[in-house]
What we know:
Helices cover 30% and strands 17% of the residues. It is an alpha/beta fold. Strands 1-2-5-3-4 form a five-stranded mixed beta sheet, covered by helices on one side.
Amino acid sequence: MDERGPWPVDAPGVVVLPSGRRVRGRGVRAGAPPPGLEPDAAFQCTWQRPRPQRWPVRWVRWPDFGLPLVPSDARAALHEAWERADAERVEISCGGGNGRTGTALAVLAVLDGVAPTDAVAWVREHYRESAVETPWQRWWVAR
């Protein structure tokens, strides 16, 4: 049974931002989320259009190991994700859940008050050590 409210802090992939907002990072190639742990809104950072889901998905066109195709759209989507995470279950995803997802989570950490120069280290500590895979992804977070 799905109890609505914030993500459980112990759910797989859930990151608690400094403000207390909870966001889940996930790789979509791993399959559907566990029953009862579906998001209210998802932001999928992939090159190919996302498959339809039972929840709203905002697509951020973003190539693997790269940067968003339209940076202004990505910034707007991530700002929306951060705002919605205050009251909703928000999911950030990419193919494997590391590079693009980690980069997006690092940007959310910046929006939440983490210094841009510290955000990659912060997301690696609180999400996955392998988050944010490339130098240009680290550069994008810092700027």
